[in-house]
Amino acid sequence: MLAIKLKRIGKKHQPSYRIVVAEKRSKLNGRYVEDLGWLNPGANELNIKKDRAEYWLKVGAQPTDTVHNLLVKSGVIDGPKRPKHRTKKVEKEK
What we know:
Elements: E1 2-11, E2 14-23, E3 34-40, E4 45-48, H1 50-59, E5 62-63, H2 65-74
Parallel strand pairs: 1-5
Antiparallel strand pairs: 1-2, 2-3, 3-4
């Protein structure tokens, strides 16, 4: 199964990321199918090839939660953002 996920590049303490299509279970810096863009969180810059991202989503690639939120922010996907951190369900007392 294919996934659209982030691949970290850059120096220590200066992270930047590539947005890539890769096998879901592949290693973090492993092989990838296609490069869709980049993210530089230090400078708050984002660049995504929208047409290619739409193609991979139609083919069935599943974005990670963070990439899903980036795609919503850039306008590729319509809808709400996903929460990054899941909260535990609190049991109701009887």
